[in-house]
C-alpha cells in the first residue's frame, strides 16, 4: 500500500541519492550537489512555491517521488503544452520517479501514479484532469501512465528535460471520474 508525505529538508540526502541513480539521472537530468538539491526542492518543501513534492512510501519505506502542480501556476509550461493539446483551467500535471533501481520495472510506478491520481481527486476537487507530457523515448514512463489508466491524447514537440533527447513528447491524460 502506498502512503504519502510531503518532502522536507531532511529528505534531501535521499533525493540526492535517487537523482544520482542511472535510471533516474537519464530522464531527470538534475544537478545532484547538496546545494542544487536544496535550491530546487527547498522552495516547495518550505511552501514558497505552488508545486508539491511528495515521497511515496511503500509499507512505510521510501519508494519514490512525485512532483505535482497545477498547470495554471506555471503559465510558461501550460502555454507550451497548450500548443499541442487543450489544457483546461485547473488541470494538474505530475512528474515521478522510483528511487531504488531494484524496485524499478516491477509495476510500482503504475501503483504510485494511480495512488497519486486518486489523492489528487481528493486534494484538489476543482482539478478536471491530470495531464502528463513524457519524452517519447521514455517508454517505461509512458507505459506506467497507460497502465495507470491515462490515455495518450497528443504527440508533439516540447522542450526536453534532458538535452540529449529530442523534442518529441507524448501527452497522457486522465479525467476526473464523474
UniProtKB/TrEMBL annotation:
Keyword Transferase: yes
Pfam family, one: Acetyltransf_8
GO BP of this protein: response to antibiotic
UniProt KW Nuclease keyword: no
Assigned keywords, A-Z: Antibiotic resistance, Transferase
Domain N-acetyltransferase: 2-177
MF annotations from Gene Ontology: N-acyltransferase activity
Cross-referenced PROSITE patterns: GNAT
PANTHER family: LYSINE N-ACYLTRANSFERASE C17G9.06C-RELATED
Protein name: N-acetyltransferase
Native organism taxonomy: Bacteria, Bacillati, Actinomycetota, Actinomycetes, Streptosporangiales
Amino acid at each position: 500500500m502506498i502512503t504519502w508525505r510531503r518532502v522536507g529538508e531532511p529528505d534531501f540526502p535521499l533525493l540526492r541519492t535517487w537523482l544520482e541513480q542511472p535510471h533516474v539521472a537519464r530522464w531527470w537530468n538534475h544537478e545532484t550537489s547538496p546545494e542544487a538539491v536544496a535550491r530546487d526542492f527547498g522552495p516547495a518543501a518550505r511552501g514558497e512555491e505552488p508545486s508539491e513534492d511528495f515521497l511515496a512510501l511503500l509499507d512505510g519505506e521510501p519508494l519514490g517521488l512525485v512532483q505535482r502542480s497545477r498547470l495554471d501556476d506555471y503559465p510558461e509550461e501550460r502555454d507550451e503544452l497548450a500548443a499541442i493539446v487543450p489544457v483546461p483551467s485547473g488541470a494538474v500535471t505530475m512528474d515521478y520517479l522510483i528511487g531504488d533501481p531494484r524496485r524499478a520495472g516491477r509495476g510500482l510506478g503504475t501503483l504510485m501514479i494511480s495512488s497519486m491520481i486518486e489523492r489528487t481527486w481528493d486534494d484538489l476537487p476543482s482539478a478536471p484532469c491530470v495531464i502528463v507530457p513524457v519524452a517519447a523515448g521514455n517508454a517505461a514512463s509512458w507505459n506506467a501512465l497507460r497502465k495507470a489508466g491515462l490515455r495518450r491524447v497528443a504527440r508533439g514537440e516540447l522542450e526536453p528535460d534532458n538535452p540529449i533527447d529530442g523534442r518529441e513528447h507524448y501527452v497522457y491524460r486522465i479525467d476526473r471520474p464523474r
